[in-house]
Design a protein that fits this description.
Blueprint lengths: L5 H4 L12 H12 L17 H13 L13 H8 L16 H11 L2
Helix pairs in contact: 2-3, 3-4
Length: 113
């Protein structure tokens, strides 16, 4: 049996499973429902508060072809690929590791492809 960190094993997969960030989850879900999604979101905070989880859920909700009422299905290929970090349309960036000028230039070059 492979060891997996508890936080990763039980990572929330939709807005209703998010704990401690209910207002943020509700705001994002309402934006999707109302088709008023901003062009960018910046997730900040201490380690373990749910930044990556919330960003992945948002990415799923925006890209899932079966999203209903702002909730991604979690079953389709797009949702599954986003959950494991292998979707070609979603680029997850670790800000702690990519914070230099050269890192940003490289990121911009890759995004413009």
């Amino acid at each position: 049996m492979q060891y997996t960190v508890l936080a990763r094993r039980f990572r929330p997969q939709n807005f209703s499973e998010v704990v401690g960030q209910g207002m943020v989850a509700q705001a994002l879900q309402n934006a999707i429902r109302g088709d008023r999604v901003a062009h960018a979101y910046l997730f900040t905070g201490a380690r373990g508060v749910g930044k990556t989880s919330m960003a992945r859920i948002l990415a799923k909700a925006l890209n899932c072809p079966h999203t209903q009422d702002g909730i991604p299905c979690g079953e389709c290929e797009v949702c599954q690929n986003i959950a494991v970090g292998s979707d070609v349309d979603v680029l997850e960036i670790d800000g702690a590791s990519n914070r230099g000028i050269d890192d940003i230039r490289s990121l911009r070059a890759n995004v413009n492809v």
